[in-house]
Amino acid sequence: MTTPMAGQRPSGEDETQQPAMDVLVRRWVVHVLKSHLPLLTIAVRQRAKMEGWLKFELAEKIEREGLGPVSVEAGYGEKRASSRSDLSFFAGGVHYDIELKTPNTNFRIPGV
């Protein structure tokens, strides 16, 4: 099976049912971040990386939404040993790979 491009629906999916997966993933990321504002404040203040934390929080959110099971850092493609996505899961018979990129927090901001 092929993975749909961003904004596209798997063929045959009814557009009235729910948004495309990339829209859902963005909503879930926003939900996770908004649910942990005190933690994010500490991470930004300390200029700490948080991609690993976000990866597991998002994996849990995806599974709570009834999708999955979610694999973390699963190999994909012909070079499965060296090519890994942050999160991987099936939904409605379609395989999805998610690659997370968090903003750089290692710069100084006055007052933070």
Kindly describe this structure.
By secondary structure, the protein is α+β, with helices and mostly antiparallel strands. It has a domain of 78 residues. It is built from three helices and three strands, in the order H-H-H-E-E-E. It has a three-stranded antiparallel sheet with strand order 1-2-3, with helices on one face. Strand 2 and strand 3 form a beta hairpin. The termini are far apart.
| Overall pLDDT level | 80
Order of the strands making up the biggest sheet: 1-2-3
Shape: globular
- What's the β-strand tally? 3
- Could you estimate the helical fraction of the residues in percent? 25-40%
Low-confidence stretches: 5-9
Q: Given the helix and strand composition, which structural class is it? A: alpha+beta
Distance between the termini: 46 Å
What is the tally of helical segments?
3
What is the beta-strand fraction?
15-25%
Query: What's the helix-strand series?
Result: HHHEEE
- Largest sheet composition: 3 strands, antiparallel
The radius of gyration is 16 Å
Structural descriptors:
three-stranded antiparallel β-sheet; alpha+beta; 112 residues; 33% helix
Protein topology:
Blueprint: H1 21-34, H2 37-45, H3 51-64, E1 71-75, E2 84-91, E3 94-98
Antiparallel strand pairs: 1-2, 2-3
Helix pairs in contact: 1-3
Give a concise summary.
The protein has a domain at 21-98. Helix content is 33%, strand content 16%.
